[in-house]
Records
---
Amino acid sequence: MSRKGKRGIAGILESREVERIRGPLLFVKIASGVAFDELVEIELSSGEKRRGRVLDISSGVAVVQVFEGTTGISTTGTTVRFLGKTLEIGVSEDMLGRIFNGLGDPIDGGPSVIAEEKRDVNGEPLNPASRAYPKDFIQTGVSAIDGMNTLVRGQKLPIFSGGGLPHNVLAAQIARQSVVRGENEQFAVVFAAIGIKYDDFLFFRKFFEETGARSKVAMFVNLANEPAMIRLMTPRVALTLAEYLAYERDMHVLAIITDMTNYAEALREVSSAREEIPGRQGYPGYMYSDLASIYERAGRVIGKKGSITQMPILSMPNDDITHPIPDLTGYITEGQIVLDRGLYNRGIYPPVNVLMSLSRLMKEGIGPGKTREDHNDVYNQLYAAYSRAQELRSLATIIGEESLSPTDKKYLRFSEAFERTFINQLPTENRSIEETLDIAWNVLSILPENELTNIRPEHLQKYYKKS
Amino acid sequence: MSVLGRIRRISGSLVVAEDMAGIKMYEVVEVGEEGLIGEVSRIEGDVAYIQVYESTSGLRPGEIVKGTGNPLSVELGPGLISQIYDGIQRPLEDVKKLSNSIFVKRGIRLPALPREKKWHFKPIEQFKHGSKVSGGTIIGTVKESELIEHRIMVPPNIHGVLKELSPEGDYNIEEEIGSVEQDGKKIPLKLYHTWPVRIPRPYQDKLEPNEPLVTGLRIIDTLFPIAKGGTAAIPGGFGTGKTVTLHGLAQWSEAKVVIYIGCGERGNEMTEVLERFPEYKDPWTGRPLMERTILIANTSNMPVAAREASIYVGVTMAEYYRDQGYDVLLVADSTSRWAEALREIAGRLEEMPAEEGYPSYLASRIAEFYERAGRVIAAGDPRRIGSVTIGGAVSPPGGDFTEPVTSHTRRFVRVFWALDTALAYSRHYPAINWLISYSAYADTVSEWWKKNVDSSWSEDRKRALEILYRENEVREIVRLVGTEGLSESDKLILFTARLLKDGFLKQNAFDPIDAFSEPRRQYKMLRSILTVHEAISALILQKGVTMSEVEGAISDPVAKLVRGRYTIPHDRTEEFDKIVNEILKKLEELQKAR
Ligand SMILES: Nc1ncnc2c1ncn2[C@@H]1O[C@H](COP(=O)(O)OP(=O)(O)OP(=O)(O)O)[C@@H](O)[C@H]1O
Ligand SMILES: [Mg+2]
């Protein structure tokens, strides 16, 4: 039997024997009694304190991941304290309106938060039998979303973007305009910044201040120049607050998390420091499950009023949707909004590639009593027609537009109008779902009635504009 | 005496324990003070490597590890139907009640089957004291749900003389309802027994799957059918429609029992089934779908080790109902997550990786899983045939079908429904690519179609496929030289292929009429399109009419024909004939005008 380490005051166990340092990891000699996943405090010889957690533990050695990084840590003169608990944050409604660092400490100069409860940031898996299926239509005022990829309350719907594309503007527009019709309650926003540029952070902060929404927003910020290991905790810290607000305080929470690509890179860094067998492009094989432990923290629950709607933002490396980060994300989330450089270059805002975008929870959120009775048919038809038009467009570039049949030419006109008037709108323009559907009918009416085979005759009769 | 050791190392879901001499491979152990459930996956001397099925956060080296003496097993008996279990058969509704939490707490132990509930047991009359019985022999029945008569069997591998059998009456599953004497030992019989999940249940004989498992999905039943006892894989990138298709199979298939394994996928997808299935009716019996369904959920945020187990837990239950003489459908969404769990476990055990980090035994594990499908003569009396049909989703990274899980799966399944990202982008659902999908059962099930639906089913199916294949070639030509140089019959191919796609292959899973088509309706729709095709073909070949004239003349009724899939109710399929007649009449007028 191994020697039991003595825990001091408040269950703290101490070691001064750092054996090895590799990347963000410390290998610390310990007596037994240290727990897997335990929170660790590292005191440098300078007196500086950092935090970390136990990633691997055997009878003699604990592997500690240091959130703030290992720069400046020496194998001598360092004290490592095992704190006898996992990383927890105190949560409270008063955190709305405040700004925190990536580990949940206030950085806005305000008072420290008086916690109503302490929670493990890792959370626990929601029991599938406790979930309630998300069904409430959120009107974002953006046609490409409301009409074609409807968001519902409790959904996790990421934005797949690329460098220089207006994902921040779009996310802000959605945060500002989103309402569930028939309710005038605003969303509380939990905002997690993961390794983003200061400019991007300023953009959001200014935006929340200007819209007067600051009091409903809690921001957790880890900037690009801050330690990468913290990024692994930031979304978890933010979602821990979100869960508290949703399930204990009956709030509808919108969680905006940006940029998940930085998160995944931090994950890769730890993995390679641990010399794990890498999966695709060096990302660890468990990245799917790891990402899921973040994304699945969205939803609605039976018997609770609140909800968590997640809108993560990620940039696709090289605009490549098959890159492991967007790919694994798409496999977990309930759809995706894909931004497109081609549309952006043609001046279309928001440059949403509707064909590549998807909302899996749309079906329950639309239709009579929710949006409008024709919505289902209209969106099916828009998809069918727009994808046919795309095909014809590429055909026309080969054989020339003049060789297309008259009907086919109408498809090209339709697609042009669809992009220019339906998808395209101002960042300040807030369209009702009726406006969105009416614009859809304007563009669909460019096509002959007999082409609209996805639409029921009764809806055609009511809405189709005969020329 | 059970083994008692101590934790030496913890790394994620892997726990290494020492002082474990005597422990067996795959034995279930209790880990740490909370007694977390784990399974032994490697032994070196007295050191055991353990996969823990729950979060290991907070575990410490030095905590105890206790052997249970048993391999991972499931409870099989009445009360399985309508349940939702986690990956190691913990009933999630009960977990919810017991923990009084919306989250899955760890360390909770609950029996899989309700202990208190009384079931009305009816013994089989012919048995009396002294009858010879063997594993699989049915000794009585219990009404498990309105749909399922649960047949109580002598557990596998037991044979002997029936000593007692209780009279008709109400019993809970722990009560003895009889006993068998085997080799001088009395073995009690209960309404349930347990079975180790990694060992296939025995049967008498395997048969050729030759009856279709009708699914109500047109592209499947008509073009790429699955047989009862068959195996199918449905690979596709994210969002291409694997889950919707598997939900469709679970909903509409003519199976007696459906087992749905949510393996490393979304929580809401389980919730959807939980909310929808009690409301939706089984089209074959009119009863709520939940009365024939068992759910197993290890969602993507639940512990990974249990993901690996969930597949075996599910297939063992499937075999159990098969042994009762029922047709069982098992769907697993997604087998890739299961394979990834294998990979993760192998990685933590520091095994030598083969392709893309997967262990070298990936292929054999996949093969073993699909081998558990089949149509069999069950063990024991009376003679009965049951089947397990398996449909597994595959989630290839980047939608690349050459990756290990997809390519190995392909070797072991006989039906391949390949989902296509391009079709999904254009919202052609189900996005099953007809050019690369296949079914090895198309010929074997054709007898059934000939007998029950129409004698020309086979030819018409082939004809439809030919048109679709030819369309692909014609489109190649168009991409090179445009439509102008096309012959009229090639233009007809384009026209008919579009009809087939829009009016037959596309099937909206969320439309109350379109979602499900029974075989006769499927055939009627197909024949309608082919009839139109044949009539036009005669016209352009013999009378020199052009396709653009034809299309102009019949565009109204053709639009109606396309809409028919969601506008014509199930009991009014003669409407299709009316539309076809309308089209034929217009074509005749065109011909007369010549
Ligand atoms: N037959 C269908 N009818 C209508 N819509 C469909 C159909 N099949 C798929 N869809 C649409 O496609 C979406 C994605 O389908 P699904 O969730 O089945 O994808 P998946 O292949 O399981 O993806 P993932 O691998 O990410 O789980 C659905 O939410 C639905 O909107
Ligand atoms: Mg799916």
Note: The first strand of chain B starts at residue 4 and ends at 11.
---
Amino acid sequence: MASVSVQDVSRNDLPWLVEWRQDKCVLCGMCAAVCTADAICFTASRGGVRGAALRQRAEISHACTGCGMCTKVCQQDAVRPVRNPDNRFPLLARAGGPLKRGGRSNLNPPRTLDKLVVGRISQMTDPALDSERHTFDLRAPLGRVLPVQDLPLRVEGDSLALTAPTPPVRWIYPLLFSDMSIGALSTRAWEAIALACAYLNEQCRLPVRMCSGEGGLPGRLLESEHLKYMIVQIASGHFGWNRILRALPRMKTDPAGVLIKIGQGAKPGDGGLLPAAKVAPHIQSIRGVPRATLHSPANHQGLYSIEEAVQKMHLSCNAAFGFRVPVAIKCAASATSVAVYNNLLRDPYNICGGFFLDGIQGGTGAANEVSLEHTGHPIVSKVRDCYRAALLQGRQGQIPLWAGGGVGQTGHAAADAFKLICLGANGVLVGRLLIQLLGCVGNEHGRCNACNTGRCPAGICTQDMRLVRRLDVDRGAQAIVDYMLAFDAELRKLLAPVGNSSLPVGRADALVATDKAVADALGVTYAC
Amino acid sequence: MVRIKTLDGHRRRSTQELLQTIEAAVLRGDTEFDIEASGQHDIGGPLWNREGKELLFRVRNPGQRVGAMCLPGTTVLVDGPAPADAGWLNSGGRIVIRGDAGDTAGHCAAAGVIQIGGRAGARAGSLMKHDPQYEEPSLWVLRTVGDFSFEFMGGGRAVVCGLGCAPAVSPLGARPCVGMVGGAVYFRGEADDLPEDVLLSAPDDNDMSWLKAGLANFLASVGHPDLLPELSDRRQWNKITPVPFEQRKRAPVMDMGTFRRNAWVPGGIFGDVLEDDGRVTELAAPGDERLRVPVWNGESCRDCRLCLKSCPRKAIVRTDGEKGVYSAACARCVGCGLCAGLCPCGAWRMTEIASV
Ligand code: SF4
Ligand code: SF4
Ligand code: SF4
Ligand code: SF4
């Protein structure tokens, strides 16, 4: 018998216990073969084949993540991960430094969005609409929308003529595939999302756009017609931008937009992080770096104030595409968001084409857990605050507000989107939802979230081709398309009862809150 | 003949007063009415003579819902225009409007005949239906109908003659026949904006004989018998019917693989930087896809053959010699580690193969 001391790590210290039923197991070996965490192995409890037993490794570095791949392959229903509430993982795992992981915050406070109900129904006051047959206009702006009085128009005979160019505006679907970089995602996962985006545009007539993330874009996409569905991102690391610029002379079309990433909701104040395990050769070439853990600075170096950010970054990005492409900016939601938005609204050059706010429930491929859990700002009140700040100045709708961070977290993205739009968002961003549709098994209750390790069991957040080959691009893209078609139908189902033919941006009167504090904070009616 | 005036100097009879007067007269046995209305609603129905005699209402200046809920045996003649909902829920009456009718004329009509000698407004004929126990309803319009007409139509026939309609303008307005599931709409001219689940065709012989007979009656009723030759040109008529429910298909959808092969960047967007043949492996894949690989160490092996017996994939090969030499056949081994776990001598060891 090996000696055991009290300080030894035991199975019971780990967040997941692997439950194995010897009476059912036929020793087919599949469970251990598929486990990317190498959390389970076989041992001989007695001699001979019949004495084999499945054992969970009692090692922090091989802790079961609860991904359930073993259960998925087991034909005998003999193995499954079970959550271990008494684990000591947060204490023990810090021995190797700060905890890192992917996913979202797992603290799960009650969601504000679930305390809001679409409570203002058109009954006798005005007609509700037929959600299936009425013609709805579901598009949202990306780009600076000039108020009528500022339009540079002159009467010329019987018609109006523009006397100066107006800022570019794209009217796009109010749900945007949010920025997950090449590198954070596997090639197949990234391509599946891009493919779904093109399919939605070309086969389903939904003008959905996708943001590239901060890892650049594949050259073939830059030089294809499909670039028109892409919003290219520039973050503090500027990864991949030399390729984007080199491709300019060969571009067949402009991209849909440029998104300047200042920060993200999952880890505000922290730059991008791509662990070395994921810096595969193609990433090295697209990003122009050797294999190493890649940190993006927490800040765009050379930007020291909001004014500078607006002038320098917006001007450069506008200029890169001849002022034909809207340029927006993405920040983590913060107690300071309104100040930033006010500043943007005062921009005299009309070169800010959107303010993207990312709330604390946003996902990430890799972050320090302390940032994930303890920094950030819930999205709902911040969208509302920004909208109301613009409203007070009569400038609502001029710089479109896009909200992300937890949209669709409970699977019901249309309701989340609709409520955020009623509170003042022009559209919403989804990221994690998309990879969950591709097959990601992670959740907000600590399941999997191994996206930073390079061992994603679903082949999504990894560059290990053995795992990437697990992912079927066509099936994944189809799952996203199917969800989006349901999303679209559900959005209409919500528009119909409030009697709106177009998106009810800022129509907070359509909502009631079942929580008094939420009602007061958001300025909506309290209902009980 | 009962003559009713509804204005007495500055006093106007309310709808309720007028309808109660009419009802009392019908109960007494009166069958013919001449009503000088001033916007009163619901004139004409639902009324019936107790001896089964026909009822006739001549009306001028009616309010909304003239001929609403009309029953068989009732004729309502409106000399001039009528506002919204003329013939609403008509259940067998004959309603003739010499002038224009307002919105939702014939809405929910389920039997009887509605003849309009001018235009009808938006949502004309919407939700018309046909109860097979009774005769089918028909709605005739000399000129044009407004937007969203024949929405959700479930039965009966509607005829829009398109008279005076400007060329290249649809006599059916915008988005007609949305949600139509039954019945037929005949019209002259061109319609656009038709939904995908209706069929546009030329009327057949049966349609034409029904149309011609009905047209003669219609044109005579609305006072334009002279137009019969002009409206009888078969080539000008079209017919809209819903695609039968059984034949309705969802718009053909392209499967994702076909879309990727035909409409996507050839060879994939990463084709130039990464070799990927698109093969999808099962979760537990053998060969190069294994996460871990068993390595055999001959020195510790005591040739007990336990691994040979326990390998679930029959992947272990023993080459005979003075002492067995073991190896795991890469094509079958999935890297489960049973061999390593069971080997009493520790001869098998699982090694991670590095990724990327
Ligand atoms: S749940 Fe996942 S990590 Fe845990 S043992 Fe099973 S396969 Fe391994
Ligand atoms: S997959 Fe199931 S049956 Fe096979 S070894 Fe694992 S637990 Fe046993
Ligand atoms: S399945 Fe992959 S993407 Fe999803 S949480 Fe796990 S590691 Fe991350
Ligand atoms: S690892 Fe599993 S499949 Fe491979 S040889 Fe050993 S027992 Fe057989």
Note: The CA atoms of residues 152 and 158 of chain A lie 17 Å apart.
